[in-house]
Write a structure and sequence with these properties.
single chain; 428 residues; alpha/beta; D-Maltodextrin-Binding Protein, domain 2; 2 domains; five-stranded mixed β-sheet; four-stranded mixed β-sheet; disordered N terminus; signal; cell membrane; SBP; Bact_solute-bd_prot1
């Protein structure tokens, strides 16, 4: 019996050893599983909301960049959230106020940046001190800097005013005007030749690139705008009135299409591509689409000339910001650093004929070099409508000017715009 018991003890010992070995093997397997789970835990998804992600337009460049980022950062997945331009302001506000997941989003102007920022105490993640910020031209960071802290990263820079058919100018022996009087004389010459001097359309955002440029020429900088919004300066100020009257002069003298009030921007671009119009009110971002319409013509850019001086306008099309409530701030910073970095901006600038906001960037294209020479001048300024404090007020002002251009009396237009400015101040 004792011998038999010893046998059972030996058998139990062997079985226990096998069991422990199995458990050890199980722990090894579980350890591997834990590593996989840990890896999965590190896999994060960032939601990127933007108006730039329309595949029918320039969005492909952004999707390509996102795909490259994901390849370089396999632990980060980008969930794209396209919001149409017309619905963008409301869409972002809904997401911010409703607490919907949104890690990174874009803003197209300092006024829109300010309007989103007014929605809460802390809307944007503070990027101050981030290594990648040192790469940007200092002036490009000013619109997204609050009390010395930086809350956004700029993308490529454009300018606005007039694009023109350079081939037509050369064939007709026309010179780019340097003064307002020369510009009016040029328009008259073109009209007499049966050519529409300036392609203009009724889309609410287009006219600002013309009369807004004139305002910049006349000294309407950010300080002037602050005085306007505080009530120290009225809408009836000569700077504002002169600018919109000069624009109205184009309409009254027949220098724009007769049917402009019923035209879309794409139609006005068609007029240039067809050789029916010599110039168009827009920004340098439209150069590629104009060149695509007619490969036999060269398109170039000119500033709207002033009476005494002509000031270059800077229009930074997009600022990329991070939601302060993101759960993945470091990954979001990495995404912005990539999307707004030198390599990606140079690619984007070459495709869109824009100027990188990164110091030391190079884009081998004569048109880009010309635009760069304009937007990097010491006297270059943020074009006027973008210095208005909120997007909502900016739109109200633009709508008021558009009514004037379409036939409303000057007095009524001034009164309506002044009311919008006063209401905005009283509702703060």
């Amino acid at each position: 019996m004792l011998k038999s018991s010893k046998g059972w003890v030996l058998l139990l010992t062997v079985m226990l050893a096998v069991s422990l070995t199995a458990c050890g093997g199980g722990n090894t397997a579980n350890s591997g599983s834990s590593k996989e789970e840990e890896k999965a835990d590190k896999q994060v998804t960032l939601r990127y909301s933007s108006y730039l992600l329309d595949t029918a337009q320039a969005g492909k460049a952004y999707y390509d960049a996102i795909a490259e980022f994901e390849t370089q950062n396999p632990n980060i997945k980008i969930e794209t959230d396209f919001i149409q331009n017309a619905n963008y302001t409301a869409g972002i506000k809904t997401r911010l106020l409703g607490g919907e997941k949104m890690d990174i989003f874009d803003t197209w102007s300092p006024s829109l940046f300010a309007e989103f920022n007014a929605l809460g105490e802390q809307v944007y993640l503070d990027l101050t001190g981030s290594d990648f910020l040192s790469d940007f031209l200092p002036a490009s960071l000013e619109p997204v800097t609050i009390d010395g802290k930086v809350f956004g990263a700029p993308e490529v820079m454009h300018s606005d005013g007039l694009l023109y058919n350079k081939t037509m100018f050369e064939e007709l022996g026309l010179q780019v005007p340097q003064t307002w009087d020369e510009f009016i004389a040029l328009c008259e010459t073109l009209k007499q030749k049966g050519i529409i001097p300036v392609a203009m359309d009724s889309e609410w955002w287009v006219p600002q690139f013309f009369w807004g440029s004139i305002m910049s020429n006349s000294g309407a900088d950010a300080n002037w705008t602050k005085k306007l919004e505080s009530g120290e300066v009225k809408v009836s100020d000569p700077i504002f009135v002169d600018a919109i009257q000069k624009h109205k002069e184009l309409v009254e003298k027949g220098y724009v299409p007769k049917e402009w009030t019923g035209m879309k921007h794409e139609q006005s671009k068609d007029l240039v591509g067809q050789g029916k119009a010599a110039m168009i009110i827009t920004g340098t971002w439209d150069i590629p689409s104009l060149m695509e319409r007619n490969t036999d013509i060269d398109i170039d850019f000119m500033m709207v000339p002033g009476n005494e001086k002509t000031v270059p306008n800077i229009n930074i099309g997009t600022y990329r910001v991070i939601n302060a409530n993101t759960e993945h701030p470091e990954e979001a910073k990495k995404f912005i650093s990539f999307m707004n970095g030198k390599v990606n901006q140079e690619k984007l600038a070459l495709g869109t004929l824009a100027v990188p906001s990164i110091a030391g960037s190079k884009v081998d294209n004569p048109v880009v070099e010309k635009i760069a020479a304009v937007v990097t001048r010491d006297d270059a300024t943020l074009y006027w409508p973008h210095t208005v404090s909120t997007e909502s007020l900016q739109v109200k002002i633009l709508e008021g000017v558009n009514k004037y251009l379409a036939g409303q009396s000057l007095d009524d237009a001034i009164a309506e715009i002044q009311k919008s400015v006063d209401d905005a101040r009283n509702n703060r």
